[in-house]
Amino acid sequence: MALVENEKSQAMQKSENQEEKDEIYYRVFPDMRRRINYEDNTIYIEVSLPGVKKEDITLKALPTWFHLVGKRGHMEYSANQSFGAEIVPEKTEAKYDNGLLQITAHIRDPMDDAKEIEL
């Protein structure tokens, strides 16, 4: 009986240690730079995420804003940010290298969905 109780106790300790490891102590808004080029209808965004692994980054885009989360140890970089213009989420691209996330989004042309009306 003591052996079974000891195994349960060890399993509970491992579970508690895992929860402590995954716990976030700090949420930080990352350093960001945005540049809009109206000549080629493109928005360029650079986000600094030092020490974050590529697999620990989540990026989601909607037509007017994006959601970003990057985890590193007990720290989480988090941002919900506007693009500054309506974009096409399907054409949004991102690449990550050495702590720098580069997002390229294409501004939606309002005439893309327009229908020609005959006179």
Short characterization:
Strands 1-6-5-4 form a four-stranded mixed beta sheet, with no helix packed on it. The chain is an alpha+beta fold and 119 residues long. It starts with a helix and ends in a 13-residue tail after the last strand.
CATH topology of the domain at 25-106: Immunoglobulin-like
Characterize the biggest β-sheet: 4 strands, mixed
Summarize the helix and strand pattern as letters. HEEEEEEEE
Mean pLDDT, to the nearest integer, reads 86
Helix/strand/pairing category: alpha+beta
- Residues in helix, %: 10-25%
CATH class descriptor name of the domain at 25-106: Mainly Beta
CATH architecture of the domain at 25-106: Sandwich
Between the first and last Cα atoms, what is the distance in angstroms? 90 Å
Strand segment tally: 8
Shape: elongated
Strand order of the largest sheet: 1-6-5-4
Q: Which residue ranges are poorly predicted, with pLDDT under 50 across at least 5 consecutive positions?
A: none
Residue fraction in strands = 35-45%
Number of discrete helical segments? 1
Walkthrough of the structure:
This protein has one helix spanning 2-22, and strands spanning 26-28, 32-37, 42-48, 57-61, 65-72, 75-82, 93-97, 100-106. The protein is α+β, with helices and mostly antiparallel strands and 119 residues long. The protein has a domain at 25-106: Sandwich (Immunoglobulin-like). It has a 4-stranded mixed beta sheet, with no helix packed on it. The protein is elongated, with a radius of gyration of 22 Å. The chain starts with a helix and ends in a 13-residue tail after the last strand.
